[in-house]
Amino acid sequence: MLGSVERMFAVLCEHYGGKWPLWLSPRQVMIIPIHADWNEYCQDIRSKLHAENFYADVDLSKNTFQKKVRNAQVSQYNYQLVVGAEEQKNGTVNIRTRENKVEGEMKVDEMIAMLKKMREEYQ
User: DSSP secondary-structure letter at 100?
Assistant: First the structure.
């Protein structure tokens, strides 16, 4: 019995090549503040995502912005949410995909609704 579960997991690993879809990914969202001044806003966003049962982390390290984005890509997070002064003022996040495609700015509630829809549709 356990062997069949292991084989199915191996098939999934081969199929996705480590780039898990959002609904299956153990690393869904990384929130990246441009500066430490926006750490609290990032923590609030993470709390909202956790409340909706998403796996989210905040990179509070002292690394440069480019290094934070690169670390999130290497770790295969589906989305990186970049937060700066403009985003905090507007109540938004700037969305990047795992492939470094910039999706642009989106309201936090709209972004959560988009992620929920993707999860429900198994994307």
Answer: -
